[in-house]
Prior knowledge:
The chain has eight helices and seven strands. The protein is of the alpha/beta class.
Amino acid sequence: MRNGASVPNGPVAWVTGGGSGIGRASAMAAAEAGWSVAVSGRRPEAVTAAAEAVRSAGGVALAVPLDVRDEHALRAAHERIEGELGSVTAFVSAAGLNAPRRMWDDQSMAEFEAIVDTNLVSVARAIDLVLPGMRAAGGGTIVVVSSRSAWRFSPGAGVAYMSSKSALEPLVASLNDQEGERGIRACHLCPGDVDTEFLALRPERPPAEARASMLTPEDVARAVRFVLESPAHVRIDELVITPLGQR
């Protein structure tokens, strides 16, 4: 073992936002599909626990805690992943941020900037890091976990969140347009309501009965795995997943 990661035995997937929720479930799903997984997130304890869960299930995992808004930390993490696991040929961007104060009459511009940096700018930074390795490998898959609010106007999601998530659609489209000839494909994955810790960032947290009808992180992770395992000539440009009954 090297720094907590078993000896690599498959292609390498890097999951940001992997300490909990959709990111953690996606890391588990990728590992079950045979990927060696690098798990990143802001909370070291949660990231370490997620990586250990992957290893306990028989997979290969490396815990790489970081805040995706830290450009230098992102670069150092990528270098470490390449050094310990190998070149990243799958990237799952699942880190996200919102705030309870999300309307024009109460939002904070400092929070607005943090949300856009997390949900948009940091996604571009990480993709920019993994693209050279994917090009050298002759292909790769990028899954950008966005939001249903990027697909359909959702006023309750907030100004900063909707704006940042909506910008991911052309970001993904530009990847497919410019990198497809190199075997690189990207998916704009837009989940509806998901029962995760992220709900705590809403102005009012939904009651238990409402959460019970939402998607689970594992529902979304199945979609991530579907994209990762699709034949190399198949590109899933955009995928929208909602719980039955969501309007």
